[in-house]
Amino acid sequence: MRALISVTDKKNIGMLAKGLSDFGVEIVSTGGTYKKIRECGIDAIEIEEITNFPEILDGRVKTLSPYVHGGILYKRNDQNHKNTVKKNNIKDIDIVVVNLYKFEEALKTNDSDNIIENIDIGGPTLIRSAAKNHKDVIILTDPNDYEEFLQRLNTQNFDIEYKRYLAMKAYSLTAYYDSVISRYFKDLSKKDCQYKTYGLRKIEDLRYGENPSQKAALYEDTYAKGLLKDIEILHGKSMSFNNYNDLNVALELSKELGENSCVALKHQSPCGVAIGEDVYDAYKKAYEADSLSIFGGIVVINGIIDEKTASKMSEIFLEIIAANDFTKEALEVLERKKNVRLIKVDLSKDTTTEDVKYLDGKVLVQDKDIKEDDFEVVTKKSPEKSCISDLKFAMTVVKYAKSNAIVIVKDGKTLGVGCGQTSRIWALESIKNNHPDVDFTDSIMSSDAFFPFDDCVEYAHKIGVKSIIQPGGSIRDKDSIDKCNEYGISMVFTNNRHFRH
Q: Across-strand partners of 343?
């Protein structure tokens, strides 16, 4: 038997080479892999002894040879194939051990020449050849598989299910690898084509999905950059499917609101949001916005959590507290709670620009909702200058609430969030119903889409709203404008809808 070994990741390579050698397998190798195997005191022959041709073009060509691929690809049970390799003095290669150049590491250098040179050619070709002929050839691409392989080698237990498993891993690796390269060139060209690739690498299995009956795992899009990319879990039990899903929304909203903002979120929608003079003020206002719903929720602070804020937070149970950082004293306070997850995240980073939804057999891809809103006053009365920041704040928050959504704010703090309703007026009514003791006088109201009727304006007047911001675009916009003019309410159109389904 003969094995070809050519790896970038040399983890466990000495163990594998020794196991192969002890079993009497002849080892053929390349470059640095050959040197590593010889350093381990194991015999090997260099690839040039097979190809009868030197490595050329700075390593771009070394295994691309019929003496290599003929030995891998010929069918052992096909007489014509056997005659061909014999006639051309091609010897069997029964085991192929390959992993690939570190293209992702090269991307971090931002050196285009270095990036291009780290596009592996020979490695993927070897992997694809061996995986195609997996009935006759073993393909190993993961160092974690070496130990089981050696156990099977000693008993010659290479059943077809095992071979197919290794072939699956091989093609998954090359597909993933090519997806990263594809996206690199997409960014360079700033163009799309009919094929779209997303390479995902598994990080860990999760306890379960949205419900205990659902299996779940966490994958990383290694090419994309985003707020969740390099989070540090400083304390607490492992994150769940729902934790990650909710945290993502809270981070994006906090990022958009800026420094000294606080987002309290539950079940994919914000429940209390505020901008404060400092992080303590922001958290206190967000807590007061909905002290009931925040319990067991997620809180994101765009800033550094200090001891005073941590002490206030520790008064209730929170699933996750995320921030740009925590002072030493804040950590000492919060770490007394065993189960709370404390997460450090860089909220100054850019977010991803695409939103991807996997349906049952179809995939929807859209740009993120990042288009800047207009600010068109459509009523006789203009908003007071002191209201403008609240109008923009309310419109930012409503973008992150599930449709149909209405948000009411005052002085940089949400007074109520109505979301996930099948009727817009119900979303508004739910705010008053859920917060019966709140005084909404002189508050600001936002809507994620236009008002199909003037009933929302009528109800807003009833509870004391003084200014409304909404996208506009209904054939009955005039009804709502007229009603605002009747009640002396100012209204602003953004001309930009913000559905979040």
A: 233, 322
Q: Strand 216-221 vs strand 232-235: parallel, antiparallel, or unpaired?
A: unpaired
Which tokens is 158 given? 């290479």
- Per the model's pLDDT, the better-predicted residue between 216 and 120 turns out to be 216
Judge contact between 356 and 455, C-beta under 8 A. Answer: no
- Cα separations in angstroms, 20 against 48, 167, 222, 252, 370: 21, 20, 33, 51, 56
The residues assigned a catalytic role are: 132, 267
Distances (CA, A) of 125 to 122, 139, 149, 183: 5, 12, 22, 20
> DSSP string spanning 189-257?
HT---S-----EEEEEEES-SSSTTS-EEEEEESS---TTTT-EEEESSPPPHHHHHHHHHHHHHHHHH
Beta strands in 93-137 (DSSP E): 95-98
Q: Among candidates 67, 68, 69, which has minimal Cα distance to 87?
A: 67
**CA 222 to CA 201: how far, in whole Å?**
7
Eight-class DSSP state of 87: H
3-state secondary structure of 149: helix
Whole-prediction pTM:
0.88
Q: Which tens digit of pLDDT belongs to each residue from 77-120? A: 989 998 998 999 889 999 999 999 999 889 889 888 899 998 98
Q: What is the C-alpha separation between 445 and 467, in angstroms, rounded?
A: 6
Give yes or no for a contact between 273 and 253, defined as CB atoms under 8 angstroms apart. Answer: yes
Band of the pLDDT at 51, cuts 50, 70, 90? Answer: confident
